[in-house]
Structures are given as C-alpha cells and as structure tokens.
Design a protein that fits this description.
The protein has one helix at 30-33; strands spanning 3-4, 66-70, 73-74, 77-78, 80-83, 85-97, 101-114, 117-130, 135-144, 155-156, 160-164, 169-176, 184-185, 190-200, 206-213, 219-226, 233-244, 250-251, 253-258, 265-280, 285-287, 291-294, 301-303, 305-312, 318-324, 331-333, 339-344, 350-356, 370-372, 376-381, 387-392, 399-405, 410-415, 420-423, 440-443. By secondary structure, the chain is mostly beta strands.
Length: 449
C-alpha cells in the first residue's frame, strides 16, 4: 500500500516478524506472556485536572512505546471519548532490532462503576513478532489499574490469572496458539489488525472480546467476563484527558510498537511500520482526531525510533510511520489540522467508500470500503484532497448514493444523494431544419467542469 509524507523522505516498507520462545512442553514462560503496565505517580491516582493531564509525566523522551495514541487532549483542551470497540491496523514492512522479539500492542482502558465505585482495567491485545523466525502470534493481558498494586480477580476466559513477581500483582493472560493465523510464519510486507470489544451479559457483567485478523478473517480468540461486577454500569472503553487512572497513568488508547514482553526495551536498527488507530463512533470505525506518536501505559519500550505522520494517496487516510532514527515525543495531528467528513445518507446501513477524487469511477472497485449504520458515517482524513463518496447497500450491493467533499480543514458535512438525470421532455419530434431546447436536470455531488 502506498503512502507518503510531504516533509520527510519516504522509505519503502519491508519488515520482519516474530516467533515465541517456548519451554519443551509448549507452555509459555512468564516473560512471554506479561506486558506489565507502566506505573505512574501515586500522588496522581484518580486525580482530576480541569485544565488537562500532563501527557509527558511518565515518558518525556525515548525509550518509550512508539506509535499512535489518543490521550483525550486536543487543541481546545481536554475531552472524554467513550466507545465499545477499538481497532488497530499494522502495516509491517521491515524491522531490525537488537532483541529477538518486538510487540505491537493495542492498549485501552475499560472503565465501569460497581457499587458506587469506579474501576479501571488495563486491557491489552498484543501481537508478538519473533524477528529471527518471522513468526507472528497473539496474546492478551488484563491488569487492574484501579489502584496501585491491585490484583486481577474475578475474571473468567480462555486464559488464567498469573502472578507477577516483578510488579507484585496478579494479571490475566491468554495465548492464542494453534488458531488460524496464530502462530503464523509471515513474509513481508504484511498487514494485520487487532480489535477489542466490550459489552455486558444478561447479569450486567462486563464482557471483553479479543480479536485479530492476519489474513484469515476476524478470529475471536478470547472472551473474558468480569464475574465480580454483576449489574455494572457505565461500562465502556474510555479516553479521558481530565483524569489519571488509579495507578497514576493515563486513560488513553494506544497502538504502539515496543520491546519484548516482560517490560523490555528494543533498539531499532531499521524499520518501516505504519499504524492506524480507529474507534467505533456509533456508526463506523473512525480514525482518532488527536494523535500523539507515543504511548504511556505499557512498560515495553523502543529506542532510536523516529515517528512521523503520513497518509494514503488514494484514500486520504492518515497513519503513523515508524522508522529508525533519533525521535522526540509529540503530536502527529489534531482535529484542527485534519478534515473530519460526516456523510449523511438515505441508506440506513450499508457500505461506503471515500477516495481521492482524481481516481476515475471505473477504478473505484479497487478502493477498500467500510460498513456503517445509522444513516451516517464519519472519517478522519488529510485535509488537502478532494474526495469522491460512494454509498452501496452492501459490500456486493448496488450503488445507492454518491457525494463529494472539498479539501478543507475541520468538520465538513456532506449529504449523499442518488445521482439522476431527468430531461425536460422525453419524446421530441423534429422536422428538417427545426430545432428545440432540451433541459437536463442533473442531481449529484461534486465539481462541474
């Protein structure tokens, strides 16, 4: 897939992948399962900050987990974002590090209230890549971030609760082994996706679902129920720029490349990795509007990683790109430097495509679309491109509506319409040398040339 960035030289992306270290009986060692959270300042536990958290309180320079993150801090100050689903996309093209493994972590915070108390579970969906053997596999972790040194208890899934001696707490983990695509020997370039969902069951208990997709479709490999919180309320993944968690770190959401499990650091000799982070906005998966190039909630880190923002030239979708080099921690983009396109459609639930207006309609079949519901969809895009919008009844359905979005910073609303041409007359009879005027009423979206 092609993408570029205007101010930084573009590199072709070509990567290498990861295999786990196993004991003779096939059971993972502790370090192969644990991705411990980074503990913050105890004085910040559940601290509310009206003007916004300090995102550099834990990591202010490398080494740090590098990639893309939403801290709930935008150009207009802090905000809160809640959702029931996060999705990360990893474009693996090349990687060369000083460790045998690297991790790609989708890290989010599950917030809920129970018996008038607030709880926070640090939820991790992780791809582990053995750089030597080019094997990819997936593992999940759940940690209790409600308070310092809090244990994970009362959770049931495919995995089990482990003891973490180095961090004096317990945590939940499960390794997806002998699943389609996990483990998987890969070649480069390759793309895979991570996803986490949360809902509640009939008892009102939070239920967390873990998925991956590395070419075999979406594989749900673990479903974890929090059985000690029946009747829980306000159950959602939360990004909160006003408040710190119970362990003094962040209510952020992050998709990061980091060192091996167990809190280790990897030095990047060379790499080219693209990352995208999406949340379910109630209608479709939308990329985050305020993006930073580093995470903070995990202890695994990278050193000598340079991160910059880029976009796909055929869709305008934004991404974070990791290469080797001396980097700084900072912002990739914010809601004032991107174009947020909201499309209203007569189609209630369907399939849509948004792409570069310069691409002819005859080539639009090559553009990957997305599902939406509720009669609208919203996308975060680069603001310097004209966009064609096509709305279908389903991925293989008929074209129902179309639209056009101009290049513009900020929020743009488009009302998709059905394209039609209606003549003022349908039957015309002319004798030799006679002429008449025919008016065509054209309904559509886009520039007229």
């Amino acid at each position: 897939m092609k993408y570029f960035q205007a101010t930084v030289q573009i590199f072709l992306i070509i990567l290498t992948l990861i295999i786990p270290f196993y004991r003779g009986n096939g059971v993972k060692s502790f370090n192969s399962l644990a991705m411990p959270p980074m503990m913050g300042n105890e004085s910040l536990s559940w601290k509310f900050v009206p003007q916004g958290i300090n995102i550099y309180a834990i990591y202010s320079s490398e080494p740090a987990p590098m990639g893309i993150a939403d801290y709930g801090i935008g150009p207009n100050g802090p905000y809160i974002l809640t959702t029931n689903s996060w999705k990360g996309v990893v474009y693996l093209n090349s990687v060369n590090v000083n460790t045998s493994e690297v991790t790609f972590q989708l890290n989010v915070n599950l917030y809920y209230t129970y018996n008038d108390h607030s709880y926070d579970l640090f939820v991790q969906n992780v791809a582990v890549l053995n750089v030597t053997n080019k094997t990819l596999f997936f593992v999940d972790n759940i940690w209790n971030s409600t308070a310092l040194y809090a244990n994970v208890t009362g959770v049931i899934g495919n995995g089990r609760i482990y003891s973490c001696n180095s961090c004096t707490t317990t945590f939940y983990a499960y390794l997806a082994w002998n699943y389609p695509g996990s483990p998987e020997i890969i070649s480069f370039p390759t793309t895979f996706q991570l996803k986490v969902d949360v809902t509640t069951n009939s008892q009102g208990e939070p239920v967390i679902c873990f998925y991956y997709n590395d070419g075999y479709g979406w594989i749900k490999y673990d479903t974890v129920t929090v059985i000690n919180a029946p009747g829980a309320s306000n159950v959602h993944f939360m990004v909160n720029g006003y408040e710190y968690t119970g362990v003094g770190n962040y209510f952020d959401a992050e998709l990061v490349m980091a060192g091996p499990p167990g809190g280790h650091t990897a030095y990047v000799y060379s790499a080219n990795v693209g990352l995208q982070l999406f949340y379910w906005n109630g209608h479709n998966y939308q990329e985050i509007k305020n993006a930073y190039d580093f995470g903070s909630d995990t202890a695994e880190k990278l050193y000598n990683a340079y991160v910059y923002s880029a976009y796909f030239t055929y869709t305008g979708e934004l991404l974070s790109v990791i290469i080797s080099g001396s980097g700084t921690l900072g912002q990739l983009w914010n809601q004032n430097s991107v174009e947020v396109v909201q499309v209203n459609s007569p189609v209630y639930s369907g399939y849509a495509k948004i792409y570069n207006f310069s691409i002819p309609f005859s080539d639009s079949y090559m553009i990957q679309g997305f599902n939406f519901t509720g009669g609208e969809f919203i996308q975060t895009l680069v603001p310097t491109m004209q966009y064609s919008i096509l709305v279908y009844s389903s991925p293989n359905g008929t074209l129902e509506d179309e639209g056009y979005a101009p290049p513009e910073y900020g929020y743009v609303v488009v009302n998709a319409e059905s394209f039609s041409i209606t003549p003022s007359q349908y039957n015309i009879s002319l004798s030799r040398s006679e002429s008449t005027t025919l008016t065509l009423n054209i309904i559509g979206e886009g520039p007229v040339y």
